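Example record

Each entry pairs one chain with its bound ligand, phosphoenolpyruvate.
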Amino acid sequence: MSRKLFIAGNWKMNTTRSGAIELARAVAVEVGSQDQVDVAVCPPLVYLADVGAAIAGSRVALGAQNAYFENEGAFTGEVSIRMLQDVGCRYVILGHSERRHLLGESDEIVNRKVLKALSDGIDVILCVGELLEQREAGQTMDVVQRQVRIGLEGVSQTVMAKVTIAYEPVWAIGTGRVATPAQAQEVHAAIRELVGKLYGAQTAAATRIQYGGSVKASNAAELLAQEDIDGALVGGASLKATEFAGIVRAGM
Ligand code: PEP
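Structure tokens for the complex follow.
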């Protein structure tokens, strides 16, 4: 089964309001009318509406970097899935390693967010990935499979079409140290095998698995050429429209 590649830019806690609008417009122009690759940008929460307006009518979709699993109430500082939908988000990134490791999100919390997002009807990018010491201790597959298994607990096969998994080795995020295509492919294949065990071969073949970790225009093609790599979640390189567009083009 051929899977449409999906490139998403995670702007993290970067840009200003005017810079975000400018970047979004430039990405929309660079991406143009191509529809071979799905493209999304995920700006900081406070700029979602402005960025949504800047990309309106383009082939670039809007995503958020996080959300909470309640609809409303006394959850100071949090934002619900419905609020994200209200400002035009199609995607939400959940379980990013910075949220897991810097902000203390457990697999169980990530799972609650995944379930809520899917029941509210937004598409999920579920991030998983091992720390350097876990890779060096030979625990990569165990860690990643546990994160996928718990992250997807209770998710039915019928909504798996709304799930993208992003494999992001933590040691490759923002470090300039990219996993080799073979290292990434090995983990992607294992994730697909696990999805197959959980949901069957057809769902496994249809599920998109992005790679994330220091992806740039210059290394994207060889990563995207791997059989089980179906796109990229891009941090630093998504902050420059031409660089990000170079990654999109590498997938065309
Ligand atoms: C990310 O934050 O998801 C990421 C992959 O960052 P970078 O591309 O900067 O490594």
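The chain has one domain: 6-250.
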